[in-house]
Task: structure prediction
Amino acid sequence: MGQRGRKKGAIGEESRTLLLKIAADEFAHQGYYETKVSTIVSRAGLTQPAFYLYFQSKEVILQELVERFRTKLFDLTHKSRLAPGTEIETIHQRIAVGITTVFRFLQEEPNLTRIGFIVAPEAEEIKKQLVALIKENLISEQKDGFFHDHLDMDIVAESIVGVIERLTFTKLLNGLKDPESLANDIVRLLLYGMLVD
Amino acid sequence: MGQRGRKKGAIGEESRTLLLKIAADEFAHQGYYETKVSTIVSRAGLTQPAFYLYFQSKEVILQELVERFRTKLFDLTHKSRLAPGTEIETIHQRIAVGITTVFRFLQEEPNLTRIGFIVAPEAEEIKKQLVALIKENLISEQKDGFFHDHLDMDIVAESIVGVIERLTFTKLLNGLKDPESLANDIVRLLLYGMLVD
Amino acid sequence: MGQRGRKKGAIGEESRTLLLKIAADEFAHQGYYETKVSTIVSRAGLTQPAFYLYFQSKEVILQELVERFRTKLFDLTHKSRLAPGTEIETIHQRIAVGITTVFRFLQEEPNLTRIGFIVAPEAEEIKKQLVALIKENLISEQKDGFFHDHLDMDIVAESIVGVIERLTFTKLLNGLKDPESLANDIVRLLLYGMLVD
Amino acid sequence: MGQRGRKKGAIGEESRTLLLKIAADEFAHQGYYETKVSTIVSRAGLTQPAFYLYFQSKEVILQELVERFRTKLFDLTHKSRLAPGTEIETIHQRIAVGITTVFRFLQEEPNLTRIGFIVAPEAEEIKKQLVALIKENLISEQKDGFFHDHLDMDIVAESIVGVIERLTFTKLLNGLKDPESLANDIVRLLLYGMLVD
DNA sequence: GATGAATGAGGTTTCATTCAT
DNA sequence: CATGAATGAAACCTCATTCAT
Result:
């Protein structure tokens, strides 16, 4: 399809996408309230009414970004759960892979990550869902005898999410560390503990 | 005491304190932007100009609350560091006590906690300071041979703060868990790990 | 007739007519300002620019509807005046027939009626013309000795229009009464009065 | 009370009253949609936010005016009903007095009248209430044998309101006729009819 | 004949903040 | 110490209308 081969409505779709991208950037870096529709459109080379051609309101565009984040995040965690680890994998490896996957996604979508974890009104809800998912996995592995019986997997799951969140913003998104090594750090710490025996 | 029996200035100080308390509540529960000066003053039984008698601006009153949080938090962690643990204490106990102290404070000041950890623009900075403090302690204990050499104490400190933050909001501030047991959970998890040997 | 069998322009005329009809409906029921061009075109299955293919502006389409109403209304009253009543007719009958004719038209064009009587900026002007017409008739009949000399036919004509307008909206357009009986009610009331002799 | 004797809040009350008065004028002459808050406040020598100090919205200030109209109108018709006509009064006089009272009020409040009868979304409702009130009176007088049995008092009441409305705008509010003579015209017409016996 | 895309202009409303008393 | 009254600034949003295809 040549440069004149634009599909019907292609240019509108482009504008919409552009607005979404810029909005994500603004929301991520300025927060909801400091993000002005006027800024978004002017960065897109458009005027204000154009914004309302594609989104009902400022709130709604945020929602769209949040849903995008939520969906991708849970799709991915779901998929990674189904992907059967090779038999040989140690539990360490299996968990590390899961966490790596999450980190990879967060790294690929830094703006959505800031939005979904911080800016969104539903941020807490999203994290809760993540906790629930992780907790499920942990419990099944606990039943399999991998983890101490006395561990409260709710607390552990919350902790993991707390750690992931913190390291995401302090080490991952600023390029200080990569997904793999971060995941490894976490797994090693949590599995074996800090104490010298 | 007659209507003129109030000590001069007392009532002003009272109003100021009241405004601060209400502002903390509003900021904590509505966030900065959804907190309206008009709401604060009306809850205080005052009028808008009265607000500006005590605080230069909405931003400034937030600052004051943030500084209050920061100061208390670091005073406390400082003091707790100086308080010499009994010789006999295990490392487990020593760390647990430190974390308990932090949790106790956060629990006593739930509004300031939300403000210092979430609402404040300097939230990240505050957490970084906390990380630094914890990291110092950890390194010294690592040098004393308590912890594995290979552990990156920066990551560990970040993780601890991440865990503390998360558990504060999901377990502590809503009364689901108390400081001691939370601290214990954390210490046990981090010191000994999850793995069955 | 195949899909290309339409006579050129036919479809354009159809669109124009459709837009007019829908606009009449919207103006009649929502008023001028609550009627949105976007609504009109979308109800017509068209897009906004299409609207401007047929009408210069929202104001102009209203004008066209108003003129349609005005023309029809005065055509009809004119014609009904020329149609010679049978010699035998009582004055009662003659007037009743005139009013019936008006009501019939208003009933057939409820939307135009609402527009011409309420929505149009020229509503007052239109009613004034109607008053003038009626007044002329009345005066000639007064000269013929049918009506009391002392009656101010200006007031009477205004009254008749007032009554017609009110009964149109409260009894005619909602189907509560038909043109004939309404006309009769009016004529009886005005000719013979309410009083028991 | 001297010129410095202003009661607390007096000046605010003045602004509010002024805004109401100007708004009434604007609504009456420009209609709701062509009335701009900016015009109202600038005519009052104020700025836009001042408007919202006294009224929640443009819609609400219209409502307040409408209610003012409605209340006054019905208060007055109520009172005039209770005021016992002298025994000696003819039915003609009694009715004329009632209509005169209404006209006097409409004349005193030309802006509210335009608002209540034309501009208000509830205009129709208000007129309906007026019709109901008049109808009641008429029926009781019909039972007393003053009026023909065959008259449908619903139609008559609607007619009276139609006439009042029309004559108000075409004869009363522009000073062409006074309340008394208008009322007389109406009563004479409706009671005795137009026909020469 | 019709559309996708966009805009100019303007309107209502909100809120932190200040002035004069 | 406090208030009544007001404002500057700006945000979001709507709508009729047009341009280029």
Q: What stands out?
A: Residues 1-9 of chain B have pLDDT under 50 and may be disordered. Residues 36-38, 48-49, 51-52, 57-58 of chain B lie near DNA strand E (CB under 10 Å from a C1').
